[in-house]
Amino acid sequence: xxxxxxxxxxxxxxxxxxxxxxxxxxxxxxxxxxxxxxxxxxxxxxxxxxxxxxxxxxxxxxxxxxxxxxxxxxxxxxxxxxxxxxxxxxxxxxxxxxxxxxxxxxxxxxxxxxxxxxxxxxxxxxxxxxxxxxxxxxxxxxxxxxxxxxxxxxxxxxxxxxxxxxxxxxxxxxxxxxxxxxxxxxxxxxxxxxxxxxxxxxxxxxxxxxxxxxxxxxxxxxxxxxxxxxxxxxxxxxxxxxxxxxxxxxxxxxxxxxxxxxxxxxxxxxxxxxxxxxxxxxxxxxxxxxxxxxxxxxxxxxxxxxxxxxxxxxxxxxxxxxxxxxxxxxxxxxxxxxxxxxxxxxxxxxxxxxxxxxxxxxxxxxxxxxxxxxxxxxxxxxxxxxxxxxxxxxxxxxxxxxxxxxxxxxxxxxxxxxxxxxxxxxxxxxxxxxxxxxxxxxxxxxxxxxxxxxxxxxxxx
Length: 461
Known about the structure:
transmembrane helix; mainly alpha; membrane; 17 helices; transmembrane; Heparan-alpha-glucosaminide N-acetyltransferase catalytic domain-containing protein; two-stranded antiparallel sheet; HGSNAT_cat
């Protein structure tokens, strides 16, 4: 649970300094509302891009290089995890208890990740379930979060000290205090870059639906193109090609389909790799994704050690702008392109910088100025994020509703609402689907989460 000391009572003091709480108040902690809002906003964003991205490809994942709205979801989740780790583990002085908590949550995340994205559930479009274990997908969103959470959680536990929370004067004291975190981040970056640019990628093969085996010619080192990058090679070697994601975003690229950026039939002259699987949450890219969580962890440390709002915000905003500038410079100079599939360094910087600035803006609005009412649906979703992720983002609730149909499996309540309440009213499928996702999914789950919040019911890992 994220926490923050209560704020000062007068608005003009809120930005400049945070008053010292009394002993009675300091014993009563409250959730960091802006972090809940950020988490809920990210879950809502995931629902939006997943369910409306087919009609609005500008918000869906970029086919390869580039960064669309959907590409911010995963880094935002990891950034939030980092902030939450700093705030939650500070309340557990016993290292053994903290390690047990981290290990247990990691196992739970892995379990739900395999169950939800391994292929067992076909919700909401198909009323079937089950998966061929020879083709089960091993990686996914929750699995990536589990790895980052485990690494960052153990790092936080191993470097936990009994030193007082106050920092020595100077802008760099917090970096000195957490030197080993910086060192760990540098090691992660070196391992990722050395593997990405130093691994030799040989020719490889995969089978297509008609029984043919296709050979992809590579024999290169340091390439960042779809067929011959080291990220895919590592996954093929360690996971096996049958356990990778069969519908990668690159299928919407211009090289693969004339309907790009929409998904469509393959071009006659499409290169063979267009039909190949690729794991967007694979092993090497998940190593790089740890950096997003480490950056979030640092922001959590700032929240703990810096007591004045202005000090926190100056640190966060300067760091966020710096990350954005560095990432965009790497991309536009063609040194390292923005690429979510590879989780490139420029992608880490740009998405983490965006997370930093968005979190800062929410912190000002929600925790400093106490403007919370307009964010309440997101805050409620954020407090029950796992429930909404499973039921809405993974389509389990929609799959259950679709199980009740009239005569034809397509005659379901969800399809009727989408068609008659939204699409036909606006005479546009694109607009209708977008509004359906916003009101019938995101707002609906915001209200449900609010009711559960009033009842004190939460799904916690």
